[in-house]
Design a protein that fits this description.
TRAP transporter fused permease subunit, transmembrane helix, membrane, mainly alpha, 29 helices, DctM, transmembrane
Length: about 625
Amino acid sequence: MVNRIHGPWKVIVIIATLLGVFLSVNHVFYLRLFGFAPLQNEYLYYLLAAFMSISFLVLPAKKTDTSIRYYDVIAFALTLVATMFLGLNSERIILEGWDWVAPVLPTVAAVVLWALVLEILRRAGGKILFAICGLISVYPLFANVIPVYFLQGHSFDFITLANNHIMSTNSVLGVPLDTVGTLVVGFLVFGVILTHTGGGAFFFKLAQSVFGSQRGGEAKVSVAGSAFFGMLSGSAISNVVTTGQMTIPAMKKSGYDSEYAAAVEATSSTGGTIAPPIMGSAAFIMASFVGVAYLEIVVAAAIPAALYFIAVFLQVDGYAAKHDLRGIPKRELPPLLKTLSEGWIYLASMVALILVLVFIQSEGQAPYYASALILILAMLRKSTRFSFKKLGDMIADTGKVLGEIISLIAGVGLIVGAFSATGVSFSFSRELVMMAGDNLLLLLIAGAITSFILGMGMTVSASYIFLAIVLAPALVGVGVDPIAAHLFVLYWATASYITPPVALAAFTASGIANSNPLRTSIVSTKLGIVTFFIPFFIVYQPALIWSGTMTESLLSIGTASVGVFLIGSALQGYLIGYGSMTMIHRALFSIGGITMLVPNIAVNIAVVSLLIIFYFITYSRKKLLKDNATEENVSQ
């Protein structure tokens, strides 16, 4: 962005960003400033005018475009004119039913904006996402002649479809964009402010203070630092780029090979997309789809996310033990108390965010309170005080982040609109259930494969939204808890970040580490393989997401933790308190870990008891052999 946005264009981006944030604040706080209280569809049009328009300036049409070209300016102007025109006519759209039959001018605006949404989607999400959304967006034109019967639906002519996509509340202005406009904007603003005030560096130093002196300290710092940062950024790629610049060179310096160092960062950063509170923006959209409070999603997702990071942490520890990688000397680490005293403003803002979420229970307002607090505290300290240039850079960066997310979500809304208009979303999920024969495991495996494939070409939010329409209802239809069903598809969508052939997070990390991208993605898959098991734990033991009594939830958390511990230990081939494991150990512990999926406490206890007995027998034998070898050496 630095190369493309400068001079007058940067001023335009800053002004548009400030206007867009003003729109959001006015909306979520119900301020009616200057008597301005737009209708919901009007508000969303103006939000697109502010952020989607500047995305054409920020995001290049071609990788070779290092400056703003004439076609960027044309697209910027057309977006601004089309969205403002529709926004000013928002009341007529509703009262006169323009989403079905509209006059010439709004129809032209709808066709133009449809094309612009697809183009900005191509720039923000890539060619694969563009192709998927573009094809599905025109699918209603020939839905009645599709040869696959469960994909057949109502068909539309081109003009009616364009009007429906742009002026109805089911497509571009549907649930995803409505959720972003109401809830997500504030959290993204908070994340950018936290980063620009030094929050990323603080969380890295905090992780160093707590974990740096342990064996494999640099890798554990990467896991913890990426977890902290990922909770707020919600993006695997930005997490790798931000924290990886610090953690990957440090890991290589302490003895980790390039592939492993890059894999640790990629796997840890991917965890940020499933870690509350943002979860790649999916938490808010999930709350809207499921019809529950946002806090309920956050609470449900907390334990599975913690299990993911525990599994990665466990494998990192085992690797360090096997390769005798020691921690960082304490004298080289920042003292914990000093780190906390220097970064208390970040902790204060986090506490403020949580308090507002819990006690005021306003998800849309909470991040703005926290943002205001951290800005005030940052300006009071000389070390974090903003100059005019830094403030301008932060606002421009906010516009870039918001523009990219809003453009992506608007484009993905076309999928929602197409399936909603044709009625196929219901028949598709019903057919999935029939094909699986009400067999939950078959449906889960089919869903996992579908989620994984879609995740290769789509962002987490885009993939999740698509699957929330076609797959989640099928899972709910066979008795799966609704939140568990939506978390299942979200976890599998994130897996593509670290698994070949795409592995965007792994490839990004390998670029920093100068490692082999394919080998890095293979190591990342091994480290993050627990991602494939946790969704099944969530479905088969819904008490893990607090869907049950407190006793049931605690038992599920316990069995899932044991399962993750066993699988993680087996994958790395190292068991704490025992040492390197044999292949028999690893096979049995893997089977034992998978058995923890069974929601039967008697079976869980029996399996763990057998493994403990096996562990002590082999440990005693190992110790006996070691003692005998020592005695022989002494006698010689």
